[in-house]
Give the backbone structure.
Amino acid sequence: MTTRMRSEIAEQPTALRDTLDSLLPKAGEIGALGEQTRQLLFIARGTSDNAAVYGRYLIEAHAGRLAALAAPSIATTYKRKLDLDGVLAVAISQSGRTEEIVETLAWAKDCGAKTVAVTNGGEQSPLAQAADVALCTVAGEEKAVPATKTYTTQLAALAVLAIGLGADVDVDDLRRVPEAVEKLIAEPGDLEAVVEGLLDKQGVVVSGRGMAFSTALETALKLKEACYLHAMGLSYADLLHGPIAVVDADTPALLVASENSPTLQGTVALAERVVAAGAAAYTIGGGDALSRAGTASLNGPDLPEWVAPMGLIVPGQLLTEALARRLGIDPDAPRGLNKVTQTD
């Protein structure tokens, strides 16, 4: 039987095309807000927070603006008012109904920020209604609890945000993403070997750096949610500062990189170090250089680094769904989780 999660993974090319068609015309509205602001503040939780990590790297590397991740508790628990004049606050929520995120965006506006919402909840969602500009993704209803198509379309919306803010990128690269995702779904690489390698493991370290860091965090989250693995998502720079000690024969590494990234060489070196220590290093992306250094490899997209995360996550999604089924877990409805999470 095909799981809902697997069906929704397959819907991503269409969701991405529809989202880009809908949102690219809004780049001008984003540009107008950009003229009134200097830096960005991302407001999100969970999977949306991982999307925000991509947004932060993208904006800083290609739009030349300082970006940061908000601590919503400053608004909702500590109730501190900050000077956010010159700030563009970008709130990300799949449903657009998470009260903490809506409240924090309203707080940011009250503190002087201009505001943008990224949501699949539609124009009438509370988050979209609270924002100066709403970037509503067109993923359609997502029934499986682990987010797949809502995540990749969030990344697409953030790419449009970067374009509106004057990023030094080629829009045609973004238009190629749906086709690249289609190819990865059809040809994910040595999926069965990676599933077999993780089948009897209790934990895994998932690592990437730069643009791929968001993919490492999101892949780790998916493996936690749907496979109940103790999956640790880390930048490889942080991993080398001590946590690498946990990587051994019982705790493999899953390493992620774009083929044309300045972080690729460091990721290859990390894979070689892991294998030399007697542990397994499974890889996602990074081309031949990374796949040769690892134990078994999943394919990456043929895309420039700035849009590669929209493809890099797909093998991680497929791995999560396949591993969950092999473990006898229903990936559509992991224990203890709901589609909309409310926090105080």
Summary: The beta strands are 39-43, 67-69, 87-93, 114-119, 133-136, 203-208, 230-235, 253-257, 281-285, 296-298. Residues 46-63 form the longest helix (18 residues).
